[in-house]
Every structure is written in structure tokens, then in C-alpha cells.
Amino acid sequence: MSRYFLNYLDELESEAIYVLREVWAQFDNPVILFSGGKDSILVTHLAKKAFHPAKIPFPLMHVDTGHNFPETIQFRDNIIKELGVELIVGSVQESIDEGRVAEEKGKNATRNALQITTLLDAIESNKIDCAIGGGRRDEEKARAKERFFSHRDDFGQWDPKNQRPELWNIFNGKHFEGEHFRAFPISNWTEMDVWNYIKRENIAIPSLYFAHEREVVWRQDSWIPNSEFLVLEDHEEIVTKKIRFRTLGDITITGGIESDADTLEKIADEVSGMRQTERGNRSDDKRSESAMEDRKRQGYF
Amino acid sequence: MLDNNQLLRFTTAGSVDDGKSTLIGRLLYDSKSIFEDQLQAIENTSKKKGHEGVDLALFTDGLRDEREQGITIDVAYRYFTTPKRKFIIADTPGHIQYTRNMVTGASTANAAIILVDARHGVIEQTKRHSFIASLLQIPHVIVCINKMDLVDYSEETYNDVINQFEEFSSKLLVNDIRFIPISALNGDNVVNRSTNMDWYQGAPLLHTLETMHISSDINKVDARFPVQTVLRPQSENHRDYRGYAGRMASGIFRLGDEVTVLPSGFTSKIKTIDTLDKSLKEAYAPMSVSITLEDDIDISRGDMIVKSNNKPEASQDIEVMLCWLHNNAAKPRAKYSIRHTSNEQKAMIKEIVYKFDINTLERNSEDKELKMNDISKVKIRTTKPLMVDDYRENRTTGSIILIDDTTNETVAAGMIV
């Protein structure tokens, strides 16, 4: 093989750095949407690379549903301190208290959809013109059509049938006042790429991704963690299992899998043998065939 | 997966009728890239629609409208990995009204897969797809002659199609064309070698994709470094650091290289090539790095650093093959913003030289309108010089887009000739 060729992880890294620098060059007030999940941690790591030796030149923004894993919040606060960047928090609880949104009712109620309003409010009130996300095209069929630079109208909505064509690596982030963009630097990464890269770079991630003992309940084909928000059904029972999480969302809807993988090597091995997509354990995606597309159209991550 | 595995991007253009979706489904399925819950979802939908068995084509339908209409509208990206390479498929619709989507998918591809129905031979759509592959300078073209099972796996039919293809493709500029007889439905020569076509001595499709030489697809001769942004940390450890951040578009830079900054023309030498992990002795495309120079020169986004002995052409008048991408037709002498690498200027379309009929490959000098999906040769004048290379030499510094300032939409994409 030629010496002058990048391997696939280096090429993906270089592409993501290029996208992040384009965002910085084309927008006045970008942020990284930071959930504390591995994808947003990866984007933050890549941003560190993109602007070194300078600091990451924009804030991280967390949309806080109030239904967090405590570990995620701890991790978030540590990373903010380490990077020396600003943190913006959009609070779903505040949106509820202000009457902007109403809590869902019933057994499968979540705050997942409520985040959309909080996110869009936070984007508007902080005058953010580009929100950088960790979305990947392999995650979900609606995301397979996402652009690197994805336009949102002044209601924050995505119009998937009327997207700007994106040719070569020329990104058009021009927008009118009130509109904003979402940028997805790791569009071309798969779950496996993310794990291989995290392993290679030895990137710190929350302990929740590693196998650990936890109180859980079996619900909708996965292990939902016990928390102050959990309401048990009559037939349900809390048990202790050795589990880990493949993705991190709200503690109320993120299901774990039984696993012994307690190192990055073991996780990468386990993921490469997986026969289910990582979002298979997210009840927010199970609501309907176009659940993700519908939420994305409204302004979801 | 090995650490030195490469990434190969390929495009597939076509409709369900060609078996394009079946082919992609087959590649993903046989390389075990379809997950159980995805398969389950497809099985459920197949049942709901009353299809027999599992319709793998459904896997490639993304948006609700597409599922309802049973067609691909937009470019969708698919991913799969084998022990040899990582692959990105740009899956694009094949109908003429989606030319712009094909062009988009083709713009970053190393290889194009062109599907020909063995029963019908080379048709207009085949020519259209081949022309786009040639226009966008996709380095490798693989013509898959599909549905061989429906022509009794006939070598004669296969050779007929090749002859038809070669007859018209002599007009195209493609360096590497290969032919593979396949049946996507039955899996012949897709992932596994067919036992039905002993007369075919070549490799199956996946093996071809895994082993074709792509290291030379990027221009390694002409060093071009468009500056994206300037890094000035002004922190205690890096008080005087001034790094030019960008991605090598082509070529190689080494420490000490004599460079010229365009458009100013100032010269200097490369002092350091930096990344977070380490400082490098050399940088090559497509690496993202930060470059510092020996001399303090005023450099900003839109400038280009090149080797002093190898410069692109500086020109305000460029000729491009332009693909119109937008519903609003081009307005004569209207001004647009033009983007070329990280540089942006204003531009005007001065003249439409001719329009291509992409089905017949004939030139039409009468029709002077630029409507959506049209491909035309045009003359463009810019307010300031652009540092351009021929698209055939350099896909990054040879390409432009036009943006309509009244809507901010991307309305056209062009290849400099």
C-alpha cells in the first residue's frame, strides 16, 4: 500500500475536523450539542483536534430533561472543566414550569419529545446559528439522508425533501436571521467506527458504557434501569443484573443489555458481533416506522 | 478490521427495475451489515404491503414519502465493512429528473456501479449514468450486467452488452472500466463467485471493490492547501502561534518547502505541520492539519497555500460544465455567489456555450436556458480571480458551486474545464 494514504479512521477523522472548521468559519455562534453520550463526546474530542493548540472556540450545550443518569451529569461537568469551555443548559423542567410544554401522561410517558421545544428555545434565546450534533447516517433511516450542513427554517424545522445539495466538500451554511443549521461532522461513521476510534484514541467515556451491576426491570425487550422516575407495573420486578448501555438517553427510556464487556477492547469486540442496531434498545424509536423522521422534521437532534 | 484498511466511496445509480436496491440489499445482507431489528422491520413492512418474502429493496428506502411511493428521491448513504475495507454507498435515484442527485452522489465517489439489465442491454439510462460518472471524473467504473439468470447466463449476451457499451463509452473520459456479469437476486458474482458462469474469469463484485487500487485516486502531485481558518490561541504556551488550518486538497507538503500564498503572491517556507497528537514532517491529501510559516504573512480564509514551483491558474474568467440543481432556472447575467474551496466571490454567468443532451451525448447550441438537471458548458466571470485547476486534474480545486443570494440556496455545481 502506498505510504501516502490514510486508513479509514484517519480519513473519517480528517473529514470531521474539516467539517468542524467549516462550521467555525461559516457561522457566528455555533455550539456543540452535548448529551454526555459517546457520539457527542467523540464530536467534542474531534473539535479539540480541529482547533488545537487553541481551545474549542464555542460552548457546549446540554438539553437537560431532568431524567438523567447521575453519571452523565458528573461526566459533563468534568469535561467542561477540563476543556475550559462554556456550558449552556436548556432545561426541560423549566419549559414545563413555564407552561411551554406539557408532560406526557401514561405508562410510556417520556420527556423525549419535550426536548424539541427546549432545544429550539435554547437555540433562539442564545442566538445560536449552528448546533453541531453527533448524529450518524447509519443510525436510522431518516438520518441516512442528512447533510453535513442541514438547514432549519425559522421554526427550527427540517424539510427533508427540500435539502440543499451537498457536492464534493463544499458546504453552504448561508442563512437568514432566525434560521439555523445543524452540522453533523461524524455523519459517515458507523457505531463500529466510533468504538474502534474511541479505543484507538483511548477517549474517556461515562462508566455506564462498561458492564456493571445495576438494578433493572425487564420492559419492552430490554433492561430499563431503576430510578426515582420508574413506576413499576404489577407484573414487573426489580432485579440486579450485570449490564451496560449501548447508547445513553434519558434514564427512563434507555435500555441496557446484559454484558460482561468492561473494557474498550471487550466493548468493540461485543459491538462487532451485535445483530441488533444500537437504537433497538431505545423505546423512543419504537413508536412508529417514521418516529425519528417525524421528530427530526420538528427540530429534534 | 485491520488498522490500515482504506475507505472506498462508491455510487450506485438506478431504479428498482434495474435491481439496484436488490444489489445493495444483497451486498449488505451477504456482508452481514443488516441487523436483526432492521430485517424485522423490513419483514413487517413487506407483509403489510403484501409482498412475498422479504423485499430487501425496502432497506434502502428512507423517508416516509419514499416508502409510500416506492422510489428513492434523495441521496441516501449506506455503510458496510468487510475485513478488507470500509465502504460508503451513495445510493441515488436513476431517473433523469434526479440528475442532480446522481451528480451529488458521484461528486465524492471513488467508484461507480452502473447496472445494465442483460435483457435490455445498453439503454438511455445506462448512457446517462456513464456520462455522469465520466463528467464527475469517478476514477473507476464497474458495469454490472445484471439479471444474467434471465438470459440463461449466456456469455454471448454478456459480450453483446460489452460491445454496445464500449461503442458509446469511447466518447467518455473514464480510465478504468470493468464488466461483471451478475444476478443480484440470486447472488451470482455479487459476494460469491457464480457457479453458473464458468466462462467468466474475473472477480465477483465485492472482491473487485475490496481490492481495486484507489491510492492513486487523489492527485499527489500538485500541493494545494485552501485555508479554512486561522488558529491563534493567544494562550501562555502558544502566545505567538499562528496556524493555518485546512485540509490538503491534493499533493504533499514537507517541512521547509518553499510556498506561495495566493492570491497575495507572498512567499515563505513551511515551518511546522501540526496536529493535536504530534507535529509532522509531511502532510498529504486528505489530511487535516495546521500549518505555520517561517514569515509573518497576512493570510485568511479563502487564501490558498501552494508550492512556489507549482501554482494553479489565477483567473476571473472560467469555463465550467455546470449542472443546474434548482427549480428556479438561471437568470441571464444574474449575479450569484460562487464558492471555490474556502473562497467566496460574486459571479455572473456570461455565456451558455452549449447544453448537453445527457441521453444522446449530443451538444445543443440553440437552447440557452438552464433548468433543473440541465448540464451545460458555460462561461463565468468572477469579481476577483479564483485559483483554479482543471477538474480532470483536481476534483477539489477544480469544482465550484453557485449560491442564489436571494434564497441562499445552492443552485448549481460546476466542473472547471
Short description:
The complex is a heterodimer of chains A (301) and B (417). Chain A is an alpha/beta fold and 301 residues long.
Question: What can you tell me about this protein's structure?
Answer:
The complex is a heterodimer of chains A (301) and B (417). Chain A has 8 helices and 10 strands. Helices cover 31% and strands 15% of the residues of chain A. Chain A has 301 residues and is an alpha/beta fold. The radius of gyration of chain A is 19 Å and the shape is globular. Chain A has 2 domains: 8-193 and 289-298, Rossmann fold; 205-285, no CATH class. In chain A, the strands form 2 sheets. Chain A has a 6-stranded mixed sheet, sandwiched between helices. A 4-stranded antiparallel sheet of chain A has the order 8-7-9-10, with no helix packed on it. Chain A has helices at residues 8-26, 38-51, 70-83, 92-97, 114-125, 191-201, 264-272, 291-298; strands spanning 30-33, 60-64, 87-91, 130-132, 149-152, 180-183, 212-219, 222-225, 239-244, 257-258. Chain B is α+β, with helices and mostly antiparallel strands. Chain B folds into 3 domains: 6-211, P-loop containing nucleotide triphosphate hydrolases (Rossmann fold, 3-Layer(aba) Sandwich); 224-307, Translation factors (Elongation Factor Tu (Ef-tu), domain 3, Beta Barrel), CATH 2.40.30; 313-416, Beta Barrel (Elongation Factor Tu (Ef-tu), domain 3). Chain B has 7 helices and 22 strands. In chain B, strands 2-3-1-4-5-6 form a 6-stranded mixed sheet, with helices on both faces. The relative contact order of chain B is 0.11. Classes of the chains: A alpha/beta (301), B alpha+beta (417). Chains A and B meet through helix 1, helix 2 and helix 6 of A and helix 2, helix 3, strand 2, strand 3 and helix 4 of B.
